[in-house]
Write a structure and sequence with these properties.
CATH architecture: 3-Layer(aba) Sandwich
Largest sheet: 9 strands, mixed
CATH class: Alpha Beta
Structural class: alpha/beta
CATH topology: Rossmann fold
Strand order of the largest sheet: 1-2-3-5-4-6-7-8-9
Shape: globular
CATH superfamily: Alpha/Beta hydrolase fold, catalytic domain
Number of helices: 18
Number of domains: 1
Number of strands: 9
Helix content: 40-55%
Distance between the termini: 45 Å
Length: 430
């Protein structure tokens, strides 16, 4: 029988607010700011909005940043080919060579800029840190506000393809009664959010900031959703029980540190324990590195776009329901949208520091008393049995583990199935 998974084994294993600054003025202010090494995006400093204000935001990188990327890619020195076939030693050389070649010669960042700028984007300062977020209100009355939180190596890019179906369900074959107002923030140290200059931005603090954001937008009642780090933030939101939070939905329920065991594990529990032990013994080196030495790995990833691409591409292949073919599942442009957000904003180190802040402390099993819904996608890193959720969540009002496709990046991989899960989960709360 597999040894039960515990915290010890893990440690041993490796809208409503006034918009006061016009978008054009915000862009001019960003462009006028003096360049500073390491600041985003593309070396341009982003001034923090005044406390309490919500400032419209548009993305426009200087051409010099794109030219610099292409020059660095052209000068890439690649390692030798792996000595074991397939992905056993990491992302294969042939796959990474093709990906960075496409990034250098064919990828169009301006296309992605236009996609982002077609959406309402904003920045606001909460608890001393500037946060970037997308906020799309539904045209349907009575839409349910939802805050969607990404993880690593994801970004707000994961959710772009679900915004339309969630905010305008009628246009996508649904009914107006399933409409959502959608808020998609970037975690601290990710993309266009501010980079913490000191320690302390742990999951509980982020969870409190998200409630402040929803309140600042004028929402007195809302729901929250997340996977990966987003599941950690969303779980802590439920733990804190802010007055406006009606329910949460998780596509990676944090039920593993430690697992809520009671007596001899059932076959389903034993399978989940096996999956967890496999992950923490054979697939978690990245987390140990970012959780203990994020600064050191940051030098490598901040200087080498090929390194940054491979670091993320590996996870998109291994953690998705792609049969180790992420190019087929996501398409290279969508993969490089996500990777480019990390590269151009120079957030390899700052995003990795979230592991140092919270991976060994806050990313753990928490008993929750607010309504919790769970969707278990078939190729998730581990598939928790329902009994674990029932032992941990006093009001488990939705559970589905029969979804036909999808892995760790649920919204990014299967936007249609993800939307269906959110509609089904939250329909009873409207």
């Amino acid at each position: 029988m597999t040894k039960p998974f515990t915290r010890r084994t893990m440690l041993l294993a490796t809208g409503a607010a006034t918009l006061t600054v016009p978008a054009a003025a915000a862009a001019q202010a960003a462009a006028a700011a003096p360049p500073a090494p390491g600041q985003q995006p593309g070396g341009i400093a982003l001034p923090a909005p005044p406390p309490g204000e919500i400032v419209p935001f548009r993305v426009h990188l200087p051409q010099s940043a794109i030219d610099d990327l292409r020059a660095r890619l052209a000068a890439t020195r690649l390692p030798d080919r792996e000595t074991d076939a397939g992905w056993a030693q990491g992302a294969p050389l042939s796959r990474v060579r093709d990906l960075i070649g496409y990034w250098q010669d064919r990828y169009d960042w301006r296309r992605f800029e236009r996609q982002l700028n077609s959406l309402p984007q904003f920045r606001t300062t909460i608890d001393g840190l500037a946060f970037y977020f997308i906020h799309v209100r539904s045209r349907h009355l009575g839409a349910l506000p939802v805050i969607l939180t990404h993880g690593w190596p994801g970004s707000v890019r994961e959710f772009l393809d679900v915004i339309g179906p969630l905010t305008d369900p009628v246009a996508y074959g649904g009914t107006a009664s399933d409409a959502f107002d959608v808020v998609i923030p970037a975690l601290p140290g990710f993309s266009f959010s501010g980079k913490p200059a000191e320690t302390g931005w742990r999951l509980p603090r982020i969870a409190a900031a998200w409630n402040t954001l929803m309140t600042r937008l004028g929402y007195s009642r809302y729901v929250a959703q997340g996977g990966d780090w987003g599941a950690g933030v969303t779980t802590w939101m439920a733990r804190q029980r802010p007055a406006g939070l009606a329910a949460i939905h998780l596509n990676l329920p944090v039920l593993f540190a430690p697992p809520p065991l009671d007596g001899t594990p059932t076959p389903a529990e034993q399978e989940a324990l096996t999956q967890l032990n496999t992950f923490f013994t054979d697939g978690s080196a990245y987390a140990s590195l970012q959780g203990t030495r994020p600064q050191t790995i940051g030098y490598d990833l901040a200087d080498s776009p090929a390194g940054q691409a491979a670091w993320i591409y590996e996870k998109l292949g291994e953690w998705s329901d792609s049969n180790l073919d992420p190019d087929r599942l996501f398409g290279r442009d969508r993969i490089l949208d996500d990777i480019s957000l990390y590269w151009f904003t120079d957030t390899a180190a700052s995003s990795g520091r979230l592991y140092a802040e919270s991976f060994f402390t806050d990313f753990r099993t928490l008993h929750l008393d607010v309504p919790v819904g769970v969707s278990v996608f078939p190729r998730e890193i581990y598939r928790p049995p329902k009994i674990w959720a029932e032992r941990t969540y006093s009001h488990l009002f939705y559970w589905n583990d029969t979804i036909p496709r999808g892995g760790h990046f649920a919204a990014f991989e299967q936007p249609g199935l993800f939307v269906t899960e959110l509609r089904n989960c939250f329909r009873a709360l409207r």
